[in-house]
Amino acid sequence: MPVKSFKPVTAGLRWRTVADFSEITKKEPEKSLTVGLRKSGGRNNLGRNTSLHRGGGHKRLLRLVDFKRDKLNVPARVAAIEYDPNRSARLALLFYLDGEKRYILAPDGLKVGDRVMTGPDAEIRSGNALPLDKIPLGTFIHNLEIVRGKGGQVAKSAGNYAQLVAKEGVYGQVKFPSGEIRIVRLDCYATVGQVGNLEHENISLGKAGVSRWLGRRPRVRGVAQNPVDHVMGGGEGKASGGHPRSPWGVYAKGYKTRRRKSSDRLIIKRRK
User: Fold this and answer.
1) Does position 63 have pLDDT exceeding 80, yes or no?
2) Would you tell me which of 9, 144, 247, 250 could form a disulfide with 154, CB atoms 3.0–4.6 Å apart?
């Protein structure tokens, strides 16, 4: 998927790049697999803003993606590769042999007409989902479960992958995209391959308006604010704000956020 750039006829187009969408084969989403998506504007059920710098943005439909891959031993044909405005990855529309339709994350190299399947007996091929016990060491995987039956939680964005590095007993060791190596049960399912749309990281928004289309509102630096508004605000001239902190004084770098986590014992190597 190449990245498309523009002639700099305006300031906003000078640095703007977009995907060329050459892999997309179907424009409209599958109606039975979409639901309406209401915007929260970063506000909770009491109307209070609990997630700053959110609001506006283009209207979207939520695509119901099958992260659980729980339709075992039923082959499916890839009917289309589609765009999803809610994530960086592309979606593959599957038509199962029994007539059911589902969306999955489209791995790199998956094409229309390919066959995919879920189950312990599936081939080691891009798009097939198997338990870690049946996947060879060193294989690139994505949409990895951490808890059996919960659905994929790891390596789901464009270009991401995890890697199975060891097996011992009922547990395996998986290297996450962050570099962390963690113990995962071998009966957890994962999809073979790397998530597609690898060029997503090379896309440049080009202008502030594109951020607004995505639903991101402006963010003002703490050091540019007044002392009454931010702990890093104030000072004569261009004064530094000291150690980076949130508006409520919580340190942003180096402050330990994991406290007595039961999953600490599952981490073999930290991401740092």
Assistant:
1) yes
2) 144
3-state secondary structure of 164: strand
- Dist. CA 93–CA 78, nearest whole Å: 6
Strand, helix or coil at 34?
strand
| Domains with residue ranges and CATH for the chain | 3-201 (2.40.50.140), 220-272 (4.10.950.10)
Say whether pLDDT at 272 is over 80.
no
The answer to whether the CB of 176 falls within 8 A of the CB of 162 is yes
Q: Mind listing the pLDDT tens digit for each residue in 89-130?
A: 999 999 999 999 999 999 999 999 999 999 999 999 999 999
Enclosing H/E stretch for 182: strand 181-185
| 147: its two tokens | 């808890």
**Alpha-carbon span 77 to 61, nearest angstrom:** 24
For the stretch 211-233, pLDDT in tens is: 999 999 999 999 999 999 999 99
For 38, residues 6+ apart whose C-beta sits below 8 A from its C-beta are: none
Tokens standing for residue 116: 């995919």
Size of the chain in residues: 272
What is the per-residue pLDDT across 6-30, written as a single tens digit (0 to 9) for each?
999 999 999 999 999 999 999 999 9
Identify whether the C-beta of residue 268 lies closer than 8 Å to the C-beta of residue 181.
yes
The amino acid at 60: R
Of 142, 149, 147, the closest CA to residue 127 belongs to 142
**Alpha-carbon gap, residue 270 to 156, rounded angstroms:** 20
- Residue in the block written with tokens 């891959």: 69
Task: Copy the structure tokens of residue 23.
Answer: 């892999």
CA angle (209, 213, 219) in 5-degree steps = 65
The DSSP letter of residue 95 is: E
Residue type, 254: G
What is the Cα–Cα distance from 242 to 233, expressed in whole angstroms?
A: 10
